[in-house]
Automatic annotation (TrEMBL):
GO terms for molecular function: antiporter activity. It is found in: Membrane. InterPro entries: Cation/H_exchanger_TM, Na+/solute_symporter_sf. It is a multi-pass membrane protein. Keywords: Antiport, Ion transport, Membrane, Transmembrane, Transmembrane helix, Transport. GO terms for biological process: proton transmembrane transport. This is Cation:proton antiporter.
Length: 687
């Protein structure tokens, strides 16, 4: 006999399999259908939530599972906003973010308070609380700028930084107003609030990086790393709640704290974005749509209040964006992006109205409760959330699209450099870090151009050796694919490993190659090793000889030591471009040590480029101790060398590899040999 199960199609649906199936169909169909109509798919998910929700066809209730997934999605949006920020740009734009944050807080507060007092006839406390709802906003349209690849535009940096400021201030206003309304604002209240906020910020911004660095140095498993990151997001959010703030502030600060440990081009970053954009964020948008109750809009009072709230909130946010544009001379499209990102009212607004609605000040003559915010404001807020999310989606879509098109047009007018990077891999243990360095060396806007080579010296290699070699290449391909990059794997038989590498470099037009070393085995007192020595004969390829002692994600600074006259080498500009990509992809600063002439050229090349750069005069290659005294355990060292006969060659270079392997055995080390096409073939690095 067979057990038969009769599906239950009664509404709302109770079958979890069917509920999840419907949600997945909506998530899949929304972008496919709405892209043809040029409607942001975020808006489609909100509308879909209203249609299938309890106030629509009642297919799915907004139960605990939707709320849990939606909360995770909201925190994910704020976390990604902090994680994807270029910290160099963020620091440079911090003053602008502060100005915009004050604009987008003060303008809605002043305008909202005035309207509430004179039009709605609310009390002063209710008016200030309602105005704080206009001041706060949610980065609901952030996935649009992320998808279009303009998260590093200064308009986005300004808007994201300003969001943290205005939401923090608005939620502090909420805390204070509720405390005043309930008579709890004594001296102890202010002391507790101040101490808890400072303690929370210190824990997230100072302790979280220490914990993350410790964990990433000891755990390489990709799943464990992702779960750890997710745990830190929710821990930061919970600590924010303990401090009397909203969880979204904790999620954003967690993103800032973990920013330097998750490079933009890393597999871990790709996993974080994939899971968030595929599941958590769509659940949040569907949950927002489920809040829309069309029945509340049949009341004239609700429509009047809601309409007025929409006008005031939108006008205030537009004025703030316009003031920011004029203050910092931004473009119209940048203003659209700032306005769109700051206009959507959702999470913080909803939290404030619910708290205000639940605060009962007393009862009227009929015994009805007198609330801090009445039912008309509650229903009007739902209408405001729907309309502002729609307007924000369209504004960001238009502005971000135009900015992305303009950036692509600007790049098309430039000569695009070719990037073909060869990773010479020998064993599975070092493959991941070689891939990570190869990805860091690539310009962020380019995909592909990566090659992985494994050489088998024995033509008669047995099946075990062949399987091991293929497994090494599969590891490289899998790691790069996790970061959304394709790698062409090459298996080559040759009696001479260096000859095989050089041959492949010529066949595939390789511009740079990354070779891994074990300092304990490869570097001898007077030699880099036979294979590496032979590789350096090929002087038309930039060569990076890499020893990874710790994960690239845990590195704090990149220390670059450059010899005199290095700027005269043929591959100097290409090398600087690669180093700049490393700084941009890892979010770490570059600290250059070199002669005054070399540093002067570097400053010109890097002027106006994204990233954080420092320049230290140093030209004595006979004694590196002054530099090493400033090297920290989490620094990565790049030593630029030259083949014999090069413009920047000096006799002291022969001892550099061995010297640094002994003096700094716990720091990552990269020996860099730029392109030097003018050197005679057959020239060796050592005498």
């Amino acid at each position: 006999m067979f057990l038969t199960v009769t599906p239950d199609f009664s509404l709302p649906l109770a079958d979890p399999v069917l509920k999840f199936l419907i949600i997945l169909v909506i998530i899949l169909a929304s972008p496919l259908l709405l892209n043809r109509l040029k409607i942001p798919h975020l808006l489609g998910l909100i509308i879909a939530g209203a249609v299938i929700g309890p106030y629509g066809f009642n297919l799915i209730t907004r139960d605990s599972s939707i709320i849990l997934s939606g909360t995770a999605g909201l925190l994910y949006i704020m976390f990604l906003a902090g994680l994807e920020i270029d910290m160099g740009d963020f620091r440079r734009n911090s003053a602008r973010s502060l100005v915009f944050g004050l604009y987008t807080f003060l303008v809605p507060m002043l305008l909202g308070t005035a309207v509430s007092l004179w039009i709605f006839r609310f009390s002063l406390l209710s008016s200030i609380l309602l105005a704080s709802m206009f001041a706060s906003h949610t980065l609901i349209a952030y996935p649009i700028v992320s998808r279009l690849g303009i998260v590093r535009d200064k308009a986005v940096s300004i808007a994201v930084g300003g969001t943290m400021i205005t939401d923090t201030l608005a939620l502090l206003v909420l805390t204070v107003i509720v405390g005043m309304a309930t008579g709890q604002t004594g001296n102890g209240f202010w002391i507790r609030l101040g101490v808890s906020v400072v303690l929370f910020a210190a824990i997230v911004l100072l302790l979280f990086p220490l914990i993350t660095r410790w964990f990433f140095k000891r755990v390489n498993d990709s799943i464990s790393q992702y779960i750890f990151v997710l745990m830190m997001v929710f821990l930061g959010s919970f600590l924010a709640q303990l401090a009397g703030l909203e969880a979204i502030i904790g999620a954003f600060l967690s993103g800032l704290a973990l920013n330097r440990f998750i490079p933009h081009s890393s597999p871990l970053m790709n996993r974080i974005e994939f899971v968030g954009n595929a599941l958590f964020i769509p659940f949040f948008l569907l949950g927002v749509g489920m809040l829309v109750d069309y029945r509340a809009f049949t009341s004239w009072e609700t429509i009047k209040v809601g309409g007025c709230m929409i006008v005031v909130a939108t006008a205030a946010k537009y004025i703030a964006a316009w003031l920011t544009q004029k203050t910092f001379r931004l473009s119209v499209d940048q203003r659209r992006v700032i306005f769109g990102l700051s206009n959507a009212q959702a999470a913080a607004t909803l939290a404030a109205v619910i708290v205000g609605y639940n605060v009962i000040l007393g009862t009227d003559a009929q015994g009805e409760p007198i609330r801090l915010l009445n039912e008309s404001v509650l229903n009007g807020t739902i209408l405001m959330i729907l309309v502002t999310c729609v307007m924000a989606s369209f504004a960001v879509q238009r502005g971000a699209h135009n900015i992305a098109v303009q950036e692509e047009f600007d790049r098309s007018g430039e000569e695009q450099p070719t990037e073909h990077i060869l990773l010479s891999v020998s064993n599975e243990e070092t493959a991941d870090e070689l891939v990570n360095l190869g990805l860091a060396l690539k310009s962020p806007q380019y995909k592909g151009g990566l090659y992985a080579l494994k050489v088998i010296e024995n033509h008669n290699a047995n099946d075990k050796e062949l399987k091991r070699s293929r497994r090494v290449l599969q590891t490289v391909v899998r790691t790069a694919a996790a970061a959304d990059n394709a790698v062409e794997d090459i298996l080559r038989y040759d009696l001479n490993i260096s000859n095989a590498i050089v041959s492949v470099a010529k066949e595939r037009n390789i511009t740079d190659m990354v070779v891994g070393i074990n300092r304990a085995k490869a570097i001898q007192p007077d030699s880099l090793g036979r294979i590496l020595e032979n590789l350096l004969v090929e002087n038309s390829v930039g060569t990076f000889i890499y020893n990874a002692v710790q994960p690239l994600a845990t590195v704090k600074r990149q220390i670059v030591i450059i010899p005199e006259r290095a700027e005269r080498e043929a591959g100097f500009v290409q090398m600087v471009s690669r180093l700049r990509s490393v700084a941009q992809n890892t979010g770490t600063p570059l600290v250059f040590y070199g002669s005054l002439d070399t540093l002067g050229v570097l400053k010109k090349l890097l002027a106006g480029k994204p990233g954080t750069f420092a320049y230290v005069h140093y030209a004595d290659w006979s004694d590196f101790r002054p530099i090493l005294r400033h090297v920290r355990p989490d620094d990565m060292m790049w030593v630029v060398l030259s083949r014999r006969g090069g413009f920047s060659y000096n006799a002291e270079m022969a001892r550099v590899p061995r010297y640094f392997s002994r003096q700094r055995p716990l720091n990552n080390l990269v020996l860099v040999f730029p392109v030097q096409v003018g050197i005679n073939e057959g020239t060796r690095y050592f005498t």
